[in-house]
Known about the structure:
By secondary structure, the protein is mostly helical.
Amino acid sequence: MMDRRHYVKLIETLDPDVDYEKIIRYTALHDFTFDTALSLQMAFYRTYAIPGIAAVLGGSGEIAARPIKRGEDTGLMVFEIIEHGFDHPRSQRVLNAMNAMHSRWDITNDQFLYVLGVFLIPWMRWLRNYGWRQPTATETAAAHRFYAEMGGRMGITDIPATFEAFEQWFDRYESIHLAPNEHGQRLLHASHKLFTNRFPPRLAFLGITFGNALLDDALRHALGVNGPSAPARGLIRLIFKVRARILRWHKAPTNSGFTPDGVTPGYPDGYSLEQLGPPQS
């Protein structure tokens, strides 16, 4: 174990335009592994609140049939690329699988761009609010550079040139398109299993409370979420604030928080790359 600020000190010696793969690896898989994984899970929920995207996701039936697998697979695919870098054979296989999967989706470039932004913008905002430290300008720029590279390799165009520009585009897109829709509400109900499976059956309701408490007001309205109460939401958010303060006194982890082919709730015996994503038709 190392000094808590070991990685951020190392990051600040690097160039986000050149070393973005190394920087995001330190940020996502060393300093903020849990936060990054949770942010990726919560990213699903934002896509449900965009009617055009929710209709495609709901129409595929994949999330409703296998919500835990679908949620985990997305995080594992992104973590694989972060761990290995874009040009590694494992990352190439993941990108090929992602492109094959998304080629079946009948959605616009702006919708694809929004989905890309969902993995970047809410993540940085989560770290600002609940991380044990603030993400630095170097980390923010590197994260943007990483996802811009991913988007380019997936054929997404018109990606904003900076994080700040992408954030403005993202907020503007949501202000226009975020809206209640039946597909999104059904998808949210199915995806509650991402949280309820972490609790004993009799306490499964706590998983729903936990997940819903992390939604902002606009998302709660679009997805038809009434609970939990404001005090309950405040308590859960306070827990994350306290966690952040405690983590400041911990040592930095020596190793990556991600294990390729590792064990997860959805893959109790470990996974292989071939298992990630929906079945090939």
